[in-house]
Amino acid sequence: MADMLNRLETYYDAVPRSAARAEEFGPLTLFVREGEGWPYYARPTLGHSGEVTVAEVDRVRARQRELGVPEAFEWVAETTPGLRAAVEKSGLVVHEHPLMVLDGAAEEVAAPEDVTVRIVDADDPVLPSAAAAPYAAFGIAPSPTAAAELAARIEAGLTRLAAAVDASGTALSAGQYQPVGAVAEVVGVGTLPDARRRGLGLAVTAALVADARARGVETVFLSATDEAVARLYGRLGFRTIATALIAEPAS
Prior knowledge:
Layout: H1 2-14, E1 20-25, E2 28-33, E3 42-44, H2 54-67, E4 73-76, H3 83-89, E5 92-102, E6 115-120, H4 127-137, H5 146-155, E7 160-166, E8 171-180, E9 183-191, H6 200-214, E10 219-223, H7 227-234, E11 238-249
Parallel strand pairs: 9-10
Antiparallel strand pairs: 1-2, 2-3, 4-11, 5-10, 5-11, 6-7, 7-8, 8-9
């Protein structure tokens, strides 16, 4: 288990660096996105094994406010157990998410007859709706450049995109994985509200896993929203190995 968690820590440190700069704050690293797109977060500095103080958390939060970015922290509970107390004493609220890894291939998921689940390339006409679907699923307005930025990441080999596409050529559900060496995280799987409860999210996830395995990815993982969603991913073969934590100000 320790080897797996160390592998994921290395991935967590590497993956933001393709789109963000890293600002070091001793035991914490703040990733600041360069350009438009999802904002990043602070997380434990790779290799740090000691405690993190409230003052150190406060220092990062002050920098986040200065930059106008969310006061967000992400980490793995089992890897950095002392961070939670410092973050909570700083006034942030911590949310728990099952951290899940897949051993082997994902179980096959059949999509509805009127839907095709496939990988979407940078020049695919489905890409704009596939880029927008997860934003709509989470009630967030995408940036005007979201599709173009996603296309650039696909062309650069930084992201792979899959979508469940209806007969009109519109993506009803979509998701991505971001490979770094032999490790990849499935992220941003979302389904349009009026297309839910049809198994589209699981079908998209299965397609992403199959593509990742075909490209030599050995470790595929994800963070589930909650235990109910984790049970759904369990149907594909994912198993919970730890707890991913996200801290943010109280809403």
